[in-house]
Amino acid sequence: MSEKKLAGLTYEQVVHKYAQTVTSVCIMRLQNYTDAEDCFQNVFVKLYAKSPRFSDETHLKAWLIRVAINECNSFLRKNRGIVSLDEAKEKAVDFTEDSRDISWALFKTPQKYRVVLYLYYCEQYKVREIADILKISESAVKARLTRGREKLKEIYGGD
Fold first, then answer.
1. pLDDT tens across 28-63, in order?
2. 1-94 has which CATH code?
3. How do the domains of the chain map onto residue ranges?
4. Pick from 26, 14, 36, 21: which is nearest to 123 by CA?
5. What CATH code is assigned to 97-159?
6. Hey, CA dihedral for 42, 43, 48, 53, is it positive or negative?
7. Tens of pLDDT along 76-95?
8. How far apart are CA 141 and CA 59, in angstroms?
9. pLDDT category of residue 3 using cuts at 50, 70 and 90
10. CA of 32: how far to CAs of 38, 90, 94, 133, in Å?
11. Given CB 3.0 to 4.6 Å as the disulfide criterion, which of 50, 79, 127, 148 pairs with 113?
């Protein structure tokens, strides 16, 4: 019996190819490796269980990002107020200020800007694609990019 294909890829190939993208989205949203791992796993369990049909790899990648964001949002709703401040500090992602890497500055931006900045600069999505993935208007994406860049300049300093 042949293995089911997802946009022409096997399940294992999809996991290998998009693991970094899904991980990054989850970490950007949750700012915690352990929680991000849980959501990462849930995304790929849903992919395996549902085996949706995709027209191409672009559709597959967008689906994975959308499901990752939804999983993170669901996780945050379910676990609101459960973790103590000390425990959160202990488990939080720690980025040191580095002039060559602005990841630490990106983590200090408000959530609604962080995800848009990540999708635009790291995943190289266009404004329209980000709007579709996040289910917001293109003008909202543009506004968040502009405000997010301003926040990054304040945090990072300079241009």
1. 888 888 899 999 999 999 999 998 899 999 999 999
2. 1.10.1740.10
3. 1-94, 97-159
4. 21
5. 1.10.10.10
6. positive
7. 888 875 544 445 554 455 54
8. 19
9. confident
10. 10, 10, 9, 22
11. 148
